[in-house]
Amino acid sequence: MDLITVNPANAFDNILYRQVLDSQQCEKQLTFLSSNALATLFVDASGKIPNGIMSGNLIDYGDYHQCLGINNSINGMMIAGKHCTLKIPFLQNDLSLFNISSNDSSITSFIRSLVSGVNLLQEYKTLLNTTFLGEPALTVGICIPKVCSVSQVAEYITKGLGVSVNDSQVRVSSFCRLPQDKPSSVYDYISMCWLSIILLLTLLATCYDLFTQYKSTSGNTLITSFSLTKNVQRIFAFKKSNNYIECIDGIRALSMLWVILGHTYVGIFLLPLHNVVGILEWVQCSMSCLINAASLSVDTFLLLSGLFCIYSIPNNVTSERYVASLHLFYLHRLIRIMPLLASVVLLQSTVFHWISDGPHWTVMGNAVETCRVRWWSTLLQIQNYVKPVEICLPQSWYLSMDTQLVFISPVISYWLLGTKLKAICALILALSLTLSSVIISSYTNNYPANILNPMRMSEYKKYFEDYYINTVTRATPFVVGMTCGYMIRTLRMRPADHTYTVSKPILFLLWILSLTCLSLSTVMLHLAMSSTRNDQSLDNFINAFVRPAWATAVGFIIFACSQGYGGLINKFLSLPLWKVPSRISYSVFLIHFPVLMTDMSSATKSVYFSNIAMLYKSVAYITISIILGFILTVVIDGPFSSLQGLLFKGEMNGDRKNRQNIEKVSEWKKKIK
User: Fold this and answer.
1) Residue 548: is it exposed, middle or buried by C-beta count within 10 angstroms (0-12/13-18/19+)?
2) pLDDT one-digit tens code per residue, 192-229
3) Under 8 Å between Cβ of 249 and 610
4) Mapped to the 3 state alphabet, what secondary structure does 590-631 carry?
5) Which are the contacts of 610, defined by CB distance < 8 A and separation ≥ 6?
6) Prediction pTM value
7) Euclidean distance between CA atoms 647 and 641, whole angstroms
8) pLDDT digit string (tens) for 290-322?
């Protein structure tokens, strides 16, 4: 049993919150403010009853920064502001909780209308009362003196109004913020040291590299691995290789852009929303088709991962030699992903926490604390099975699933390096097992077909844990990728005088089928969001067959382009335009969600959802993520990739020397005989 839990409040200074409380000073300051104009600052900075409640706007934070900016010394009292966010669940709509004793009929009428008006939201209960969005609650920010607690202020105000409340039955949660309430942690010091080391190495290596260039001498390769100039040049060096599949650059880059676009729209649920009901209407219109199908980009990346597992194996490697070098295969994978992943986890745990602030910053606080508690499951690549709803870097579950598939891929790859019969049998068996597992899971559990279907949000947790991030149910595209990689690798190994051609009618038919499959997959995921459809069979069909079909269609495009049958599509996907985004895609993938979360956590008031506003946000997030991804690639990913190359070069040289020594010993023994 996992006893470690994530408490977002730990990201803030709870000791400071307790130290500033003083009940006597609070009573004194409240009495003073009740007859002083300074009280208008507190009232003005506090939230009011939100407008647009029937549209789903349940939040009014007030003016967070104005509240924390209050700092006045009057009559020997230091009166400073503290912003508190109150959450009042709607389920307590019983007027018997309120003992209304006020003679002011307007107060009585106001309380009754507020409480009873909540019942009008029952029409949208399915949308609002979900595991993902939490229990529907009115969220209001209030500004109070920092020496006061919320309960003490509430008691003071209700007494003045002549209204008493049964505290034992009313459910109200609160969280208060003060200026400079983010304490430094051990993670901050680790992050500072790590970043300082990286920057120092980059600076020294760059100076060394520039000096060697000035002297026209060859520098030490190990040192220049961290050179800024070398790594920038490496990103922009477009050297053609006969064995490189150029179209993959375009596919990878476009898929990465699709991921960010999809996360921008999904991330809207991280915002304090003004028109939640409007989102329900938008997801069912044709404009949302690409967004609803954005999760297919995951299957594209799984396809590419499976393809490279087999395609990257050199032609002269046999099954026995492959098994003998498995330790290098696993080591290569870990060294490839770990330095950058660990660095971004560290950034999320520390640096991003200090970038901004606001009344909604508890969302970032939750992300920060999750990384501080769950970093180990992220680095061990098991977070899709260990507390999957508490994931450090929400998008990095894909890395865990992909790594798990890569680690078990040698079971298939071994047979693919043998005879054709063994290879075909291995692929058929792997495809049958993975496809049957997802079919059984889909038709047995009746999952929704989309991760954020507003009409089935109560099933989000089950669908997310048991299907969406489950390696078993998502493995088919990976195996399809291995099949595609095997076919391309086999053709790569054929003698130069052995050529083959595909007739134009068959090629045309395959292209039509592939493009039709891609289009239908996108449309079907969009149709699954309809609120008027009650047929579960479409969801089951999508979960069981659409993702493998999508991977098969993309796999055909890669195969056709690699064999010279891509035409204009190959030319488009092979444009130099895609090379740089493709090379930094791993960094962009890791950094884009912290970028997105930083902006959305900085919200100071409810945000009105509109398609054009989200498109502008998407462009901003893509731009910033590409810039930061480029920097991370240059200073972390690039240098460690170079070090990895040097390491494996030494390993391979060592293996080559061992083989030469064995051959010499064998020849010497023969001579002795």
Assistant:
1) buried
2) 999 999 999 999 999 999 999 888 888 888 888 999 99
3) no
4) HHHHHHHHHHHHCCCCCECCCHHHHHHHHHHHHHHHHHHHHH
5) none
6) 0.89
7) 10
8) 999 999 999 999 999 999 999 999 888 888 899
